[in-house]
Amino acid sequence: MNNYSKSDRFILFTNKILLCGIVVVVLFPLLYVLLASLLEPNVLLSKGLSLDSSDWTLEGYRKIFEDGSIVRGFINSMLYSAGFTLVTVTVCILAGYSLSSDELVGKRFIMIFFLITMFFNGGLIPTYLVIKNLGMLNTVWAIIIPNAINVWFIILSRTYFKSIPNELKEAARIDGASEFKIFLKIVFPLSKPIIFVIALYAFIGQWNSYFDAMIYLEDRDLYPLQLVLRSILIQNEVQPGMIGDQQAAAELQRISEMIKYSSIVLASLPLIIMYPFFQKYFEKGVMVGSLK
Hints:
mainly alpha; MetI-like fold; 2 domains; 14 helices
C-alpha cells in the first residue's frame, strides 16, 4: 500500500466498499431463503426473520422427503445434468481439438458453419418435429441430446488447445504416437482448466433448465426438479400426498409456503457444493481459453 499514490488508494478503497456492498446484496436473499425455510410461515409473516430457535422447524424439509415428486425430480435433474455435461464436454472438447489443428482440411468452412448456428436456428416447431420423428419424445434423450453441442464451448476449447505448445505434440509424433494418443496422453492432462469450466457451465445450464422438459416430456415421473418447482412456485400446486386429506385450506397454504422455501434451498445445494471444487480451475480456464 505504501507504493500506491493517494488516487490509487482511494480507488482501491472505493472498490472494497463496492465489493462489500455487492456481497451483501448477493448474500441477503440467500440467507433470507435459508432462514425462511426453517421458520414457521406464521412467524415469518408476523415477526419476519427470527433467530430464535423456538420458531424454527424442519417440517418443510420433512414434507419434501416424504413426497415422491420432489425427490424424484431431484434425482432426475442430477441424471440429466450429469449426462448432459458428459456428452457436452466430450463432443465440444473433441471438436475444439480437431479445429485447433492446422492440418484439418476445411476447418474455416466448418467454423463458419458453426458460427451461423449461433445466430440462426430452425425454431421451436421444426425442432419439436425433428425430435418427434427421431422417437425421442418423452425420453431422457430429448433433454440431453438437442443442446449438447454448444458452439461457444467449441470456440473456447479450440482457443485453449491452440495455446498448448506445438513442440509437445511434434515430439510425440516423432516418437510414433497417433493423434488420438497425443490427445489422450499429452493434451488431455493439460486441459483440466477448460474441461472443468465447460463442465461447470454445462451442469449449471442444464440444472436450471425446465423449458425443454416442459415441451418434450409428458410423463411426470421424468420431470426434472426445476419443472416440479415451477408447479409449486408459480402454479402453487402441492401434491395431495404432502398433507392429510382432512386438513383445512389454511394448513394447505402453510405447508405450501414451507415447501417453497425448502425446495429452493434443496435446488441450490448441488451448485453451492460444486463451485468450491471448480473455482481453482475457473479463472485460469476462462482467461487462457478466451485470449491468445
